[in-house]
Amino acid sequence: MFGIVIHGGAGTLPRAEMSGDSERKYRAGLTEAIDAGYAVLQEGGTSLDAVSRAVMLLEDNPLFNAGRGSVFTLDGRNEMDASIMEGRTLKAGAVCGLTRIRNPVGLARAVMERSEHVMLAGAGAEEFAASQGISFVPQSYFHTPERWQQLERIRAGEFGLSGHTISHVGTVGAVALDTHGHLAAATSTGGMTGKRFQRIGDSPIIGAGTYADNQTCAVSTTGHGEWFLRTVQAYDIAARLRYGGYSLSSAVSEAIMQRLPGLGAAGGLIAVDQRAQIVMRYNTPAMFRGCVRDGETAKVYIY
Questions:
Q1: What fold does the segment set 3-80+146-301 form as a domain?
Q2: In 3-state terms, what secondary structure has residue 254?
Q3: I need a labelling partner for 275 at 20 to 30 A (CA). Which of 19, 83, 145, 156 fits?
Q4: For residue range 64-82, what is the model confidence (pLDDT) as tens digits?
Q5: pTM of this structure
Q6: From CA 172, how far away is CA 158, in angstroms rounded?
């Protein structure tokens, strides 16, 4: 048994604000990504290749807050973060504060596979990208009208600097189990609308936003990054399985539906374990998500 799960972020988008045309576009974007990742698995490819492919497609889609569709900082910049991890060896790579890389998750994988490091930041990460022949795009590539309008509303004082009230989706991710029994996870984000001080959230942090271990599960999170950092949320799920004897479903439910709300945190996560059990859970009004396993039909959800 093998399978893949993806998410396009959890957020505050009420069903009443989702037009039929918008919903079709979101569903099409999710379907394209999950189909591409699943095709890798069907052909005997690795879970690492599957999550990379799925996340790259979501990064290329301006609907989602990662890559092309990344939100703006308060000073009108795009700063992107990403991470990736494979469960067989626990190797991982992460990047943060990128401004000119089309697919941050691809650079995160390069850090994992072509360097002795786990995490590179800002100019150093982009210097490494250049040394590896990874192409750059102009900063204008990331300028989308919808994201700019969100920033303008914050600058006008319509919302607080957190931007949570207008950031309908934040972060993309994927987790997968391949035919060889190996797990992998990847997460990518444009961060928080109107953020300052080069703020970094949970997405590029191994153990907080991304985690994979063949002995337990693979996890990618989305939501209130500061709390996912404080609770080391992705690793917390794996630890509940490894040391607490939890099932994947009970571990995720307790974390997302009980612990995080009790701390005032909002968000969700996707996970798959070594037996191909899939869980997608969130405590926000919506989470863009989808999943498919061997022999089953792909499913895409928003609410």
A1: Glutamine Phosphoribosylpyrophosphate, subunit 1, domain 1 (3.60.20)
A2: helix
A3: 83
A4: 999 999 999 999 999 999 9
A5: 0.96
A6: 26
